[in-house]
Amino acid sequence: MTTPQPKTFAFYGRVSTEDNQDPDSSRSWQLTRASTLIQPHNGRIVAEYFDIGQSRSLPWQRRTQASLLLAALRNPGRGFSTVVVGEPHRAFYGNQFGLTAPLFVHYGVELWVPEIGGPIDPDNEAHELVMSVFGGMSKGERNRIKLRVRTAMAAQTLLEGRYLGGRPPYGYTLRDLGPHPNPAKAADGKHLKGLTPDEQTAPIVRQIFAEFLAGIGLFAIAEGLTANHVPCPSAHDRARNRHRSGIAWSKRRPRHPHHPRYTGRQVWNKQRTDEVLLDVDDVAMGHTGVMRWNVRDKWVVSKDITHEPLIDDATFEQAQAILQRRGRGTGGQHVRQRTRNPYVFRGMIYCAACDRRMQGQYNHGDAYYRCRFPQEYALANQVEHPSNVYLREDALTDPIDTWLASAFAPHHIELTITAMSEAQPLDHSPAAGTAAQTIITECDAKLERYRAALDAGADPAVVTGWIAQTQAERARAEADLRANAGTPARRMSRAEITALVDALGDITAVLRDADPADKAEVYRQLGLRLNYQPETQTVRAAIDLSAHRGVMVRVRGGT
Predict the structure, then answer these.
(1) Residue 505 backbone dihedrals phi, psi, to 5 degrees
(2) Rounded distance, CA 159 to CA 300, Å?
(3) Is the whole model's pTM more than 0.85, yes or no?
(4) Whole-angstrom Cα distance, residue 433 to residue 484?
(5) I need a labelling partner for 231 at 20 to 30 A (CA). Which of 21, 38, 349, 449 fits?
(6) Torsion of CA 107, 109, 114, 117, to 10 degrees
């Protein structure tokens, strides 16, 4: 009797923070279940794919390890013939099984699931029904977790007035309130934080309220603060506002009369995360989170005063009454502005006078870009800037398209392909290695705290378990660090680049006939940046595509 040849498996599992489980224990549990299933069949696992920290709602193509597994299916020399899943309700969400299983069938790779007791039969309706049920259960579980978390956060804000994170408002800074009440988080060294008045900015907030109640408008307040050389919020906290110039107070920035936090009460749920389709033309790509502002009625405000107030309730109510009379009493509500017109160069044109993005505006049916720095920022610091800077879109479109198309002209195409090939990075991205090193550092700090806890008389059984988990996490991070150190990024060959360029065809015709939205996407992918100099009425265009890295274009129009 011949012994059957061992069957080779690839293992896939997943765990994220929403599952509220330790990654090491979850991985071990899922791997044990998979091994128990395949051992009677003389199977062995030769490859592991385990996603950590990625939501189950992400489709497989957007998960790090799952996407690598799908890519391995295409490789005839992948080294395994079957894939075993640790837990189906963590691997598949909603209708993901129906979108993923056909790939396994196409490449002739079996998919095994412990709940099925072996391989999934693609022609078995019962198997498909069971997997659909697991997808529905996974979606329901995630929704329940979201509901529990939001309910708990609302209760903690309303009843306890707990600070739940985020940037402290201007006028406050954070202070340490001691170890976190959750024992597990306290063991990780996490502390509660609370708001306390900032010695430098708290008097400024009180001054803004006093001037506002005295009848001074917000624009005038911004001008006065800038004239008195008071740092604006972005200048005061440069570490969190590196993307802003910080040279003057915005005339829309003194919104302090809107904020209930200055009365000493905690506020939560000013923003929400909506899930919108990543690609409306490809629903299988799933959703992405978009932050949006909630109306004032949905804010959660603590019942009691939880931190030192900068103003009293009467002052705050007077400020709200003034805002109502001026027609600006939205209570801090942010109105979402939706554009009705496409802008080809949206977010790509910068004013050379202030290095800020120019805004789109339609006049008499034509698209323009404008910079209204003097209308938006206080100019008491005597920043030299034209009062209005306008640039017409159609004055740029043809010159830019001609310039881009010239890079793909027959007499330039070889030079362009060479430049694109040489511009590829030589080394792998250090992001993964940096993340692994950060985990190692955090684990070392945890181990020191755990040893100190043992010396202080903590329960040895509990602390020993923490130490074992942390050591396992550190070992995995060290393995990732070694793997990343020897894995260079894949570079496209010259033949692959040539094939992509050939697939585009006539670049000039493509750009000329393209839909404005599609053309804007092409520009964004190229990293196009346009700097408009209003004094000379010239535009400096730059991309990192070929030797043609910049061009000066003369445009018409007043400043």
Answers:
(1) 75, -140
(2) 10
(3) no
(4) 6
(5) 349
(6) 110
